[in-house]
Every structure is written in structure tokens, then in C-alpha cells.
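Sequence in, structure out.
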Amino acid sequence: MIAETVCSAVSAAGLGIAAVTAYRKRYLTAARIAAYALVALGLVMTGVVEWAADTAFSPVAWAGVAVLGAAWALFATTRAVERRRGGTRAERREARRAQREAVAPAASEPSLGPGTRPAARPAPARRAEPAEDFSDIEAILKKHGI
């Protein structure tokens, strides 16, 4: 009841401002102000304001908003987990089937699996060059005339 009264008062004030604006020969602005004022009155007359007020002060409506929020959070969480795992169940099943088909029928080990690699040989130790070998630096300096 209060919301309808406030909206009606806003509409009346808006129409008054539109009348003053039209009196000042600013007809386009006055028409725009009148349109905004009539929107509030139209919302009251159609019952949208009453419905919004009933919804805003209803504990059941706010519980419904909470349930919708929980549903959205569950949906977002499951999508994030699904992306992290690598797709839907059907996509994972196809990946497993492709992995099984990668094995040769008569092979005892998967053809794409880890094979036996020769042991990595350590790199041969480099000879330590003398710390005072400045031959390349001297060549650069000579090149530049220093």
C-alpha cells in the first residue's frame, strides 16, 4: 500500500516537473520527463509494484533466492571439476578406449608405455680453463681500437 502511494506521488511530481519544463518551451525534455513519470504510474496500475513489494518482504521468496544461489554454486562447482578432470564421462571413456587400442594385440607391454631406456651417461667433465684467459676480451678491445 505504501509503495503504491509513493509511486503515485512520484508520478504526480514528475508530471508537475514536466509541466514546468513545457512552460519554459523545452517540449522534448518535458515529454521525456512525462514518460518517466507515467512509467511509475503504469507499474502501480498493473500490479507490478504490489507483486515486487510482496516478493521483497516474503521469507519464502528469499528462501527461493537462496535455493537458486545454491543451485548455481553447485552447477559452477561441478563444471569446474569436470573441466579439471578432462571432460565428461563419455569423453573420459573414449580416452580410455583409445589408450587400450594403442596397445598392439600380441605385445606384452603397451607400445606407448615407458620403454627401457639406456642409463643416462654423465656428461664428461670439462677442463677448467684458466681464470686469467682474457684473449677474447683483448681481441674485442683491439677490434674497437682500445
